[in-house]
Amino acid sequence: MAISLNTPLPFRFRFLTQLPSSTPPSSFPLSNLTLNSPALNHNHVRSSRFKFPPAAKLPSINCDYTTFEVRDVSYQPPGTQLKLLNSVSFSLPEKSFGLIFGQSGSGKTTLLQLLAGISKPTTGSIYSQKYGNDGNPIKPPEPLSPERVGIVFQFPERYFLAENVLDEVTFGWPRQKGSYQLRENLALGLQRAINWVGLNGISLDKHPHSLSGGYKRRLALAIQLVQIPDLLILDEPLAGLDWKARADVVKLLKHLKKELTVLVVSHDLREFTSLVDRSWKMEMGGNLREESLPL
Ligand SMILES: Nc1ncnc2c1ncn2[C@@H]1O[C@H](COP(=O)(O)OP(=O)(O)OP(=O)(O)O)[C@@H](O)[C@H]1O
């Protein structure tokens, strides 16, 4: 049996979250979801790219603010004498857009990998710091947890594995039955992410590789947005796209910037000019310094 937009809403929602039949109706506009969808039947987590437990986080509405801080971070890959990052420090306030540019091979991707917890700094620290209205810290610094960082790699579509859009987004979800709260959060997070990136107009049954270049990037973003990340990082988000898709992705990031803290590595400086709040240049040898975009 296929679930479509015509399926009664309570059933569609119950299907995704396996709720008891007494659960009140809820809107969940999934299309073409099938009961045999492998993403919903496996009993194990197939991927680590969706990390748990989720902590549903809504954007703060008080006057306190948080910054993401990188302090004196150096990185030497294990077993080498090579220093790829050399005492890198910078600070990015929440809900702002940071851009790192610089020559190929200077260490930009390496830095993003440290922020996402894929590698560990050899020295230095990466943390978030909460401040009060008066600009003074109101809590001790907290290490930036990799679970709270969303990363979209360069050419993310190369890593798509599933047969349809829905399975691609839910690929790393837990397969065992979770609590009602967990499943509800995931379902609502999925709906929000799909809407945010503008994928709501397309069938979730479509093969990810049949999407246009721009829509593939939207899908890659949606995967990271099911749980709202504290920090969203993107490596060369415009690479390989035509002018129309590039403009669409920039527009989407402009929209996301209102809700999220975004850090981008890119060579495409012109397109991002209107979004950038802070920018840094990575020099060869892994030296980072704050610098305006050279336009
Ligand atoms: N594990 C590693 N061991 C040794 N060298 C590495 C390792 N990882 C990356 N490098 C080297 O470190 C340098 C920095 O790589 P990185 O990918 O971070 O640069 P980049 O600035 O992102 O480049 P691009 O703009 O081309 O993506 C490169 O010379 C790369 O070959």
Automatic annotation (TrEMBL):
Residues 68-295 form the ABC transporter domain. It comes from the Eukaryota. It holds the Pfam family ABC_tran. Keywords: ATP-binding, Nucleotide-binding, Transport. InterPro entries: AAA+_ATPase, ABC_transporter-like_ATP-bd, ABC_transpr_CbiO/EcfA_su, ECF_ABC_transporter_ATP-bd, P-loop_NTPase. PANTHER family: ABC TRANSPORTER I FAMILY MEMBER 11, CHLOROPLASTIC, HEAVY METAL TRANSPORTER. This is ABC transporter I member 11, chloroplastic. It comes from Stylosanthes scabra.
